[in-house]
Amino acid sequence: QSDLTQPPSVSGSPGQSVTISCTGITSDIGSYNRVSWYQQSPGTAPKLLIFEVSNRPSGVPARFSGSKSGNTASLTISGLQAEDEADYYCSSFTTSSFVVFGGGTKLTV
Amino acid sequence: EVRLVQSGAEVRKPGESLKISCKDSGYGFTNYRIGWVRQMPGKGLEWMGIIDPRDSDTRYSPSFYGQVTMSADKSISAAYLQWSSLKASDTAIYFCAKSRTPWELNAFDVWGQGTMVTVAS
């Protein structure tokens, strides 16, 4: 059982938008703007997509955006492309000074 | 180019010890923290803990506290993850990853390639 709750799967057609939710509690997502999102393709290491809720590292397309409301963070992918098909994970810092991940969401394009 | 290079796949028997490594390829090893993430077969990511190579200050997830030991040797830009007595349930891929900033615990912007650890009798 994971500490943050994500939908097991989402799907969308090329060009569409999808949103992946990540629900925590007041002692993690609800307490800090320190939510990250990662993309993992099969057989590869995760890649950082979003940090501090809504910031993108250099090189990550603007199609990827993050937000937060209360205890729930969200990752939105606009203009879906075939290469976006992957697993997506959220993570959050907690008031106990460690980090928790979500269970992951498989995106099918 | 920033790179983290991990040691190769390992096969051990239950009860055996193991130490795997993660070496920096030239970004200033002591300027960031190194975290460890577990991925069991077919499962999601789990944050195990993080170490600051400057002073070896370490924070563990409660799920992994007492189960593994993290260490670092800044003189050779290496971080380590070790077990004193492996269990079959330790079978997983273990990733090391670099924190985005020196104080960051939750955003890893460079990852190692992963080390597959198989524990079987």
Quick structural overview:
Chain A is built from no helices and 9 strands. By secondary structure, chain A is mainly β. In chain A, the strands form 2 sheets. In chain A, strands 1, 3, 4, 7, 8 and 9 form a 6-stranded mixed sheet that branches.
Provide structural commentary.
The complex is a heterodimer of chains A (109) and B (121). Chain A has strands at residues 9-11, 18-23, 35-40, 47-50, 64-69, 72-77, 86-93, 99-101, 105-108. Chain A is an all-beta fold and 109 residues long. In chain A, β7 and β8 form a beta hairpin. Chain B has 121 residues and is mainly beta. Chain B contains no helices and eleven strands. Chain B has strands at residues 4-6, 10-12, 18-24, 34-39, 45-52, 57-60, 69-73, 78-83, 92-99, 108-111, 115-119. In chain B, strands 2, 4, 5, 6, 9, 10 and 11 form a seven-stranded mixed β-sheet that branches. A four-stranded antiparallel β-sheet of chain B has the order 1-3-8-7, with no helix packed on it. The A-B interface holds A 2, 34-36, 38, 40, 45-48, 51-52, 57, 87, 89, 91-93, 96-104 and B 35, 37, 44-47, 49-50, 59-62, 95, 97, 100, 104-109, 111-114.
Identify the biggest protein-protein contact and residues per side.
A-B, 27 and 25 residues
Tally of contiguous helical segments of chain A: 0
Q: Given the helix and strand composition of chain B, which structural class is it?
A: mainly beta
Helicity range of the residues of chain A? Answer: under 10%
SSE arrangement of chain B, N to C: EEEEEEEEEEE
Number of helices of chain B: 0
User: Which stretches of chain B of 5+ consecutive residues score pLDDT under 50?
Assistant: none
Largest sheet of chain B: 7 strands, mixed
Q: Which descriptor suits the 3D outline of chain B?
A: globular
- The number of strands of chain B is 11
Structural class of chain A: mainly beta
Oligomer: heterodimer
- The whole-number mean of residue pLDDT values of chain A reads 96
Distance between the termini of chain B: 40 Å
- By DSSP, the count of extended strands of chain A is 9
Task: Write the H/E string of chain A, N to C.
Answer: EEEEEEEEE
Radius of gyration of chain B: 13 Å
Beta-strand fraction estimate of chain B:
over 45%
